[in-house]
Amino acid sequence: MTMTTLKSRWQILRRVAEDTRGTEIVESAFVLPLVFMFVIGIIWFGLVFLIYGTLTQGTRAGAEAAVAPVCTTCGATPSPAASAQTAVYNALAAAHLSKSNLVPWGGKWTPPRLCTCVANNPNSSCTGTPVTCKGTVTDVCVQTNVQLSYPSQGGAGTCGVSVSARYQYPYHFSIPLTNLDIGNVLVPGQAQMRTEAQ
Fold first, then answer.
1. β 140-147/186-194 pair status
2. pLDDT tens-digit series, residues 47-69
3. Exposed, middle or buried: residue 161 (CB in 10 Å: 0-12, 13-18, 19+)?
4. Secondary structure class of 181 (helix, strand, coil)
């Protein structure tokens, strides 16, 4: 092999190494999956926020329905628990969310621990048996006649209703190289409302 042949081969190798054609394809192969995952993450967490807002609005409407004075001349009126559960279901239906994704309490989540309402209760914690959920369905917890605030914590010692629910995120998306699955997210919703005088 002569020196000129060796020199020409080095020049060819040098030109190939300095050639930038095709680097855009390699760069986009690294960047596009990251951009795609970022956009999908924005969409999925946006859906979680939509579910959270809907469930919060539904539990607030349920709490309002449970504490509102009932009409005494209207005949058969539903119980406060039934009114609250219907309000939560209506809010979910208005947002096109399935009520079948509501998680029953006792399994993956437990209702808040709230005490029975006692007038001028100075205690700042629940020392007795907590109030159980009312109603016939187990996916919306309605706790009536509960202590919402305590005078020892700066509150007025008010009584009221608490409505809470958990919604199972309906889509599954596993994050690569981890055991995380966004389908295991339970979106919470809870509202408390002071009892109104009739």
1. unpaired
2. 889 999 999 999 999 888 888 76
3. buried
4. strand
Backbone φ and ψ of 181, nearest 5°? -135, 120
- Looking at residue 184, the DSSP 8-state letter turns out to be G
**Spatial distance between the Cα atoms of 190 and 198, rounded to a whole number of angstroms:** 24
Angle (nearest 5°) at CA 46 between 41 and 52: 130
> d(Cα 90, Cα 93) in Å, to the nearest integer?
5
Query: Coil, strand, or helix at residue 123?
Result: coil
The 10s digit of each residue's pLDDT in 96-121 is 998 888 888 877 778 888 888 776 55
Which of 132, 147, 130, 140 minimizes the C-alpha distance to 189? Answer: 140
The pair of three-digit structure tokens given for residue 138, joined into one six-digit string: 């187990």
3-state SS, residue 60: helix
Place of tokens 């100075």: 122
Q: How far apart are CA 186 and CA 169, in angstroms?
A: 6
By CB atoms closer than 10 A (0-12, 13-18, 19+), residue 168 is: middle
Q: What angle do CA 93, 69, 161 make, to 5 degrees?
A: 65
Residue 147, classed as helix, strand or coil, is: strand
